[in-house]
């Protein structure tokens, strides 16, 4: 593997989409920071990247905690160099119908998705501005268009899209692009949890959704990672403020 080109931070990278993104960016030649709530959960992914010849660092931090984020990004800069690629992927679900949804369910989802993306972006952008180069990729979702039982998650993911477009306007003159990837149905622990909430088997849940996907298959974390990889490229510098749905077909 070639010498890392950039230092990339991927949040929520201990599993699922974040793990796939971390591996893809490492394959692209970047040094990758595998960031999740607990460092011990990140070690497996970081070790796998290192074993494949890449450079990786496991960092534990709560992305909704301002002090923890500042400390984590400073640690990355000290140990690997200035982070100039940031993938805001960390997310949780606390699904419920509106009349059953608690304030805690709402606040936790907003805290991780929106506050977390804000705090991570604010902490990393200073290094990007100094470098005259930056790539911020925010992970939204097709749920941003509305999804029963996910008022909190849908609102957060829609907010991510507005956040993305605003950062693109503010940071573009510094050589920093900001884009969003919005996955449709992806086979993951999170979608398995959704099936469980609905009281159906994952197989039944998957088959029902796939029947409405034009390409005729569910998405994989690697599909999302490929889209992130494009936005993070050096030669993607004229693409900013975009929302790319990775959903196997058009969405209204």
Run of helices and strands: EHEHEHEHEHEHHHE
Gap between N and C termini, in Å? 41 Å
The top level CATH class name of the largest domain? Alpha Beta
Strand order of the largest sheet: 3-2-1-4-5-6-7
Characterize the overall form.
globular
Task: Explain how this protein is built.
This protein is of the alpha/beta class and 252 residues long. It has two domains: 7-184 and 221-243, Rossmann fold (3-Layer(aba) Sandwich); 186-218, no CATH class. Helix content is 48%, strand content 16%. It has eight helices and seven strands. The protein has a seven-stranded parallel sheet with strand order 3-2-1-4-5-6-7, sandwiched between helices. The mean pLDDT is 96.
Q: Layout of SSEs?
A:
Elements: E1 7-11, H1 16-27, E2 31-36, H2 39-51, E3 56-60, H3 66-79, E4 83-88, H4 103-131, E5 134-139, H5 151-171, E6 176-183, H6 189-198, H7 202-210, H8 221-232, E7 243-246
Helix pairs in contact: 1-8, 3-4, 4-5
